Amino acid sequence: MKDVTFLVDHFTTLPDATKAIAASRILANANTSEQFMNAIIEEKLTLAEVPASLIDGLRNHKVDKVKSLAQQGLPPVVLRADVVTQYQPALAGEGDRERGRVAFMKACLVCHESHEGEGIALGPPIATVATAGKDSLLGNILDPNKEVAPQFQAYSFEFHNGPPAVGIILSENANETTVRMPGGIEKTFPRSAVASMKGLGQSLMPEGLENTLSVQEMTDLLVYLTSPKSE
After folding, report:
1. What percentage of the chain's residues is helix, strand, coil (to nearest 5)?
2. Coil, helix or strand at residue 48
3. Is 132 strand, coil or helix?
4. Residues 46/135, Cβ–Cβ less than 8 Å
5. Which of 91, 125, 134, 146 lies at 20 to 30 Å from 210 by C-alpha?
């Protein structure tokens, strides 16, 4: 418990990639989740310092007290179409590739590999989506559940014993299943251990990146994503 409390108390000093990985540990403990939400309410943390995946997890926490605190301390959910409209200036703005790489490290590294090979291969490789153009990328970033390829759909698993798991299915056979979860953690378990399994019909990429990235950071990120692998 002490190490999880340490994560909350020193969250602002963690590298961006470590913050995203730490999110799963914070969310796994109701007391720590409550402590983290109180830190946001007391303005010891700003939303710009918190990964969107952690914000989403607090908002949808299974513990009612944490969910209630999230309703109190987090901004209201905004229609995705309205957010995309709000960020349209990012398409016309002048961006910087290196600043975009920093924005990628801040917001995307936990689920995608960068052009330089850093990060976690949980979502689609950026090389495969960058050719879609900035307009399509903007929509996919801010409204990640509008279109989800089957291989990247999230599944939730409840087990007869132990905590649940949410991730994408890497492989499965008659005897066991392997999933990859946020942070790149892989878990293999026998099918007999599963009490229930549910396709969530959505991506593991969280909504709410507008709480993490400004319009200018989005402009820079789009430049980085659509630029050649090396310049």
Report:
1. 50, 15, 35
2. helix
3. helix
4. no
5. 125
Question: Which amino acid belongs to residue 65?
Answer: K
Alpha helix ranges (H) inside the chain = 2-9, 16-27, 30-41, 52-59, 64-73, 80-86, 89-92, 97-107, 126-129, 134-142, 215-226
- The Cα 148–Cα 202 span in angstroms is 6
Highest mean pLDDT among 9-13, 17-21, 133-137 belongs to: 133-137
Q: With a threshold of 0.85, does the pTM exceed it? A: no
Q: Domains in the chain, start-ordered, CATH in brackets?
A: 2-73 (no CATH), 80-144+210-226 (no CATH), 150-203 (2.30.30.100)
Distance from C-alpha of 143 to C-alpha of 95, rounded to nearest angstrom: 21
Contact between 75 and 38 (Cβ < 8 Å):
no
- Residue 169: strand pairing partners: 179
Which structure tokens are listed for 82? 């309205």
